[in-house]
Amino acid sequence: MSLALGPTAQLALPLQCAGWQRFVKCAEKCTDMLLPSREVDFAAFIQSVTFCIIITGFYGVDPGTLSPVDVAFMTSALNHHSDGILRQTPHYPGELYAMRERVCRWVGGERASQALETILPAYESMWRLAAVTLAYANGNQHMHNAFLDFSENPTQRQFRSFKVKNTRPSVEAIINEVLRLHPPVQRIARKSRHPLWKRIFYPAQEIADVEAVHRSCVYGTRLETFDAMRFHPQHERPVEMQLLAFGHGGLSCVAEEWAPMATALIVAKIMDRVDDAFDARMYRNTRTGWDGWAVRKKEKGRDS
Ligand code: HEM
């Protein structure tokens, strides 16, 4: 995916109830802290909130100690880093040093290297999943309401419950459908398992195209259409096969169980605080396709 991570890049994700409640508080604080009263760039805002929630939620950093300027520096450096990987250009060492210096300050020297290895894949996938979900829910009253219910009652039960007598999707189904159509990691790679003598005839790596698999008929009909109800168990052809968005087998993402609900929470808290009025064009490139998108803080006492 990105930085070369060892199998030790594990962390105690706040899955337990108390941990989850603290994570909810972090999400609220970070959203409020980074939302100015004027209109603000959509992608930059989602990136800052996501980064802030990761660093405060995973590492117990107090949101009040993060300066928005440092947060903006980190998101921009992480974006450069991901661009560098895509274009296969090395990272600018000064920037890497400056990132490490900030992370050391927030989480302490011993945890800094491991923290950076976790922050990057978490940030890169979660901000884009959050952004695309917000884009789909924008202007759709049912999806909007499902997220507002989840913001008010952020429990696993609420996350999973289908709405309006099972005719409208749950937050979980919406997130699954976004992951199906726009998996943040589009390809996964494995070392080729051909016997040694055959290896000169085959590439060293085998690549699975996650995006293409997700548009295959195992996932039902009208595969290019956003239809979160395909994940309902009583749908005419319910989706039985698991998504590949978190990879597969022993090397699959460590946050597979946790990240969908955590990202949904980010979306829910943002939706609760901003006006439902972004630019309505939706681009296929979920890293760079957000030019012209903006969000505005909700006026007090008015729900959109
Ligand atoms: C929307 C959320 C996320 C998606 C879609 C996602 C997806 C993926 C995928 C596809 C892989 C490669 C798996 C394979 O090769 O089979 C991966 C690896 C990984 N993910 Fe995630 N991930 C997400 C969130 C997170 C979060 C929140 C964390 C941190 C807690 C995380 C940490 C990692 C790590 C450490 C690896 C292995 C190292 C690497 O390849 O960079 N991911 N993820």
What does this protein look like?
With 304 residues, the protein is mainly alpha-helical. It has a single domain (17-275), classed as Orthogonal Bundle (Cytochrome p450), CATH 1.10.630.10. The protein has ten helices and four strands. It has helices at 17-34, 42-59, 68-87, 93-107, 109-137, 141-152, 156-160, 171-181, 210-214, 259-273, and strands spanning 40-41, 187-191, 205-209, 294-295. It is globular and about 65 Å long. It starts with 16 loop residues before the first helix and ends in a 9-residue tail after the last strand. The model is unreliable at 1-10 (pLDDT under 50). Protoporphyrin IX containing FE binds next to helix 5 and helix 10.
Label this structure with key terms:
heme binding, oxidoreductase activity, acting on paired donors, with incorporation or reduction of molecular oxygen, mainly alpha, binds protoporphyrin IX containing FE, Cytochrome p450, Cytochrome P450, single chain, 304 residues, iron ion binding
Brief synopsis:
With 304 residues, the chain is mainly alpha-helical. It contains ten helices and four strands. The longest helix has 29 residues.
Helix content: 40-55%
Q: Architecture, according to CATH?
A: Orthogonal Bundle
Largest sheet, in brief, is: 2 strands, antiparallel
Sheet/helix structural class: mainly alpha
- Give the full name of the CATH homologous superfamily: Cytochrome P450
End-to-end separation in angstroms reads 38 Å
Give the CATH class. Answer: Mainly Alpha
The topology string of helices and strands comes to HEHHHHHHHEEHHE
CATH fold-level label: Cytochrome p450
The Cα radius of gyration reads: 20 Å
* Ligands: protoporphyrin IX containing FE
Question: What gross morphology would you assign?
Answer: globular
Low-pLDDT runs of 5+ residues are 1-10
**Total of domains:** 1
Mean pLDDT: 86
Q: How many beta-strand elements?
A: 4
